[in-house]
Design brief:
alpha/beta, 10 strands, 17% strand, globular
């Protein structure tokens, strides 16, 4: 029985597929099986994969119809997995040869850890390194992700994951399969944040380990999350669900929840005022979720709405609103810490 199952979900990533598979097979840690999942690709992925069909470590599963969700593929792969640990190695990313060795070592050493992950490099479609993903978490804590750590899962959720997905790419993660199965896998109804809510659910019953060395190469390309999802309220609605789930599962300090709610409202009203978000059902869903988090949400919305209208009209009106509502003046504009609108999602879609 292999120690690790490596799942490679692919959809139309033929250009990157060979490099991905080769980076898995070349790992210094070799006690693994590979499950290749093709989600009805329409490019030449079949031809690219054909050169690996003779490798006895690889099992293949082809969908005749596209599943429409990467998280359905995650769940499907793990149902087929035999390994104690699972690495979901997305088909357009690739890895340093020492990734598995480092992460397996963490899960072996710390039996309470359900998620072990490493730092990532962000690369373009030509494998040029754009930046370290360290920049993604700098607004939360500039120093924390510069060194290895192990943390209690609930603390990770209450201090960091409630703001943003601090595990920015699923390809950097090694999962303890038993914990994944206990939380019943990824939420297939989440379009963008199925990975984020999965990490939260797993960490409510287990701990987390981090390796500061960048051993994962996360592909940032044109098919990544577009600005539309940030503007039209789709991503915001999912983020509200995550905040609600965390706040109802563990105690969150009131001042922290206040800050998060103010940022959500600011983001929400901005999308409405700029006419990006006109979906009534989605807005009602957001309102209902926020109402469960805070019963005075209607009062907050009125204050913020008045302020936003004033902000849109003129600088003179803004100064008047500052005088009338000094408690919200300091909360206007773009957030300087915590959740960034452009970074709310994680995984494949950030």
């Amino acid at each position: 029985m292999p120690k690790v199952t490596v799942i490679i979900p692919n959809y139309n990533h033929s250009h990157f597929l060979e490099k991905r598979i080769q980076s898995v097979l070349n790992q210094t840690y070799q006690d693994f099986e590979v499950i290749y999942l093709d989600d009805a690709s329409t490019d030449n992925s079949h031809e690219v994969f054909a050169k690996f069909t003779g490798d006895k470590r690889i099992r293949t599963i082809y969908n005749q119809i596209n599943s429409g969700s990467p998280f359905k593929q995650w769940n499907k792969g793990i149902r087929e997995a035999k390994g104690e640990y699972v690495w979901i190695a997305e088909s357009d990313d690739y890895a340093d040869e020492h990734l598995l060795a480092e992460l397996v070592g963490r899960l072996d050493k710390y039996p309470k850890v359900g998620i072990a992950y490493c730092q990532s490099w962000k690369v373009d479609e030509n494998d040029n390194i754009l930046s370290s993903m360290l920049e993604r978490t700098a607004d939360l804590d500039e120093q924390r992700w510069k060194q290895d750590f192990v943390n209690e899962g609930k603390d990770e959720c209450s201090r960091y994951l409630i703001f943003k997905c601090t595990v920015p790419n699923g390809s950097a993660v090694l999962i303890r399969r038993s914990v994944y199965e206990k939380v019943e896998g990824a939420d297939e109804n989440m379009k963008y944040t199925g990975d984020w809510i999965l990490w939260v659910k797993m960490l409510l019953i287990s701990d987390i380990a981090f390796v500061a060395q960048p051993l994962n190469y996360y592909r940032k390309h044109r098919n990544s999350l577009t600005n539309d999802s940030l503007k039209d309220g789709t991503l915001l609605a999912e983020y509200c669900q995550i905040v609600s789930y965390i706040s109802h599962s563990i105690d969150i300090p009131e001042y922290l929840l206040e800050e998060i709610l103010n940022r959500i409202i600011d983001w929400w009203l901005t999308t409405i005022l700029h006419r990006y978000n006109r979906n009534l059902n989605r807005n009602l869903k957001i309102y209902r979720i926020l109402s469960k988090i805070n019963q005075r949400i209607t009062h907050r919305l009125i204050i913020f709405w008045l302020f936003k209208i004033a902000l849109k009209k003129s600088n003179v009106a803004v100064q008047q609103v500052y005088k009338v509502f000094p408690e919200i003046a300091s909360r206007s504009g773009e957030p300087k810490q915590g959740i960034r609108k452009s970074e709310a999602s994680g995984g494949r879609y950030s």
